[in-house]
Amino acid sequence: MATQYEVEHNIKPTTSTTRRRRQVDMSTFTAHLHTLDPETPSTASTTQQRPPHEPHNNPHAVPNPADTAALFRLLQDQMGTLATTAPTESNRAFLQSLVEALELDVAHPPRQLEGVTQEFLDGLDRVPRRALKDDDACPICAERFLDDPYPLVVELPCHGSHRFDLEI
Questions:
Q1: For the chain, what is the HEC assignment?
Q2: Confidence band (pLDDT; 50, 70, 90) for 162?
Q3: Cα four-point dihedral sign 121, 125, 131, 136
Q4: At what angle do helices 27-36 and 65-84 cross, to 10 degrees?
Q5: What is the per-residue pLDDT across 104-155, written as a single tens digit (0 to 9) for each?
Q6: For residues 10 and 2, what is the distance between their CA atoms, to the nearest angstrom?
Q7: pTM for the predicted model, two decimal places
């Protein structure tokens, strides 16, 4: 007969009710994005493989529309996963609207992937941890900023309340 782990090791079971993080794993999305747009800095290891000054072997190449649609489908699936565990109805509605908005990109993928540069992200104003309130959360994933012991929260220049964590 099997005994419980706690009994065998003479430890007391923990009864803390820590909140489970809703953070999704975006590694597949990031890897797929890097295959479509090699100029995208995904991790430090990829910049070590090919220095940033070294041009792509075919600078006029554009991503295959089917691959681009698959990239948007991955993002859509991640938003759908977050929507299933949304803490509030307004967050669920927001995530569902993002899923629906991505449907157009899946149906008609763009010729080129657009986004902001790493320099733009690096230039955003950081929000100090002491300036964050206990209930401040990311408007996209509804993760509370202070659930992360080392949040990297930035503020967009358009409005003082548009904040998000760069690591989520």
A1: CCCCHHHHCCCCCCCCCCCCCCCCCCHHHHHHHHHHCCCCCCCHHHHHHCCCCCCCCCCCCCCCHHHHHHHHHHHHHHHHHHHHCCCCHHHHHHHHHHHHHHHHHHHCCCCCCCCCCHHHHHHCEECCHHHCCCCCECCCCCCEHHHCCCCCEEECCCCCCCEEECCC
A2: confident
A3: negative
A4: 160
A5: 888 888 777 777 788 888 888 899 999 999 989 888 778 888 988 888 899 8
A6: 15
A7: 0.52
Q: Which residues contact 69 (CB under 8 A, 6 or more apart)?
A: 105, 106, 107, 109
Length of the chain: 168
Burial class (CB in 10 A: 0-12, 13-18, 19+), 91: buried
Distance between CA 163 and CA 120 in Å, rounded?
15
**Structure token digits, residue 107:** 């149906």
Dihedral over Cα of 127, 133, 134, 140: its sign: negative
Taking the CA atoms of residue 51, residue 126, residue 145 and residue 13 in that order, the dihedral angle to the nearest 10 degrees is: 70
